[in-house]
Amino acid sequence: MRNLDKYKGVIPAFYACYDKEGNISPEGVRALTKYFVAKGVKGVYVNGSSGECIYQSVEDRKIVLENVMEAAEGKLTVIAHVACNNTKDSQELAAHAQKSGVDAIACIPPIYFHLPEYAISQYWNDISSAAPDTDFIIYNIPQLAGVSLTQSLFAEMRKNPRVIGVKNSSMPVQDIQLFKQAAGEDYIIFNGPDEQFISGRVIGAEGGIGGTYGAMPELFLKMDELVKSGKLEEARLIQYEANEIIYKMCAAHGNMYGVIKEILRINENLDLGGVRKPLASLIPEDMPIVEEAARMIRDAKAKL
Description:
Strands 1-8-7-6-5-4-3-2 form an eight-stranded parallel beta sheet. The two termini are 36 Å apart. Strand 6, helix 7 (174-183) and strand 7 (188-191) form a beta-alpha-beta unit. It is built from twelve helices and eight strands. It has a domain at 7-217: TIM Barrel, CATH 3.20.20.70. By secondary structure, the protein is an alpha/beta fold. The protein has helices at 26-39, 58-72, 87-100, 117-129, 142-145, 151-157, 174-183, 197-203, 217-228, 232-249, 256-268, 287-303, and strands spanning 10-12, 43-46, 77-81, 104-107, 135-140, 163-168, 188-191, 207-210. 49% of the residues are buried. Helix 8 (197-203) runs parallel beside helix 9 (217-228) and helix 11 (256-268) crosses helix 12.
């Protein structure tokens, strides 16, 4: 069996960090990385949905990853999402990720065109071949990608020895059970939807990768600890609090990641910029929502 322990735990999805001109901010990337090291999370998931990867260039994503690796100093498990909407760019990012020393690369399926499963598996295997010494994680997020990871496609991908598991962001928590039962203990399944963190962990996920973890890592670390010790009632109460915070963060006119970055400015003195168009920026009317969500996080942390 493979040693998958470095992937088991709370792995926040890394946020895009911009300067005042809207370009990648290496200083912001390094500051956010050090913040995660200080919080004691297991690792970071770089250049995924929370990293606004769809709206960034290949060069942007290289700059982000290089600065994460420099600032992490080997203290975090680093998973780099490398998928682009063409194989060539994805392979370039995969090779760069391996050269940078990441623990794993991850990929969504190709989006827009609805490709047959044999084309999807070819896409993933071609990307994996560009990083032959690096673990590969399938990213299943059908509500955004428009493609679901089926059991037959997962079985085909397990023929690739570099495939170690699935980041499952589909909403049915049962999918985690099905992937886990199909793959066994030699593969790891990550819970994706933050609102069902403890549900995913209980039904079979050994770790979690989430876009709101970064705003309140203490809550998810505590839930993970309580699940491991079998204190599910206590974990459920924290999950309810985290969910109320998530609902509040989603109530603004601006994009949720813009809300989170402003919360991190208020609560943690981190300046990560805004969001990249076409994502909606915050407007003045959003500030009471942001401030309330920031206060809710502070209050929830104080109870731990």
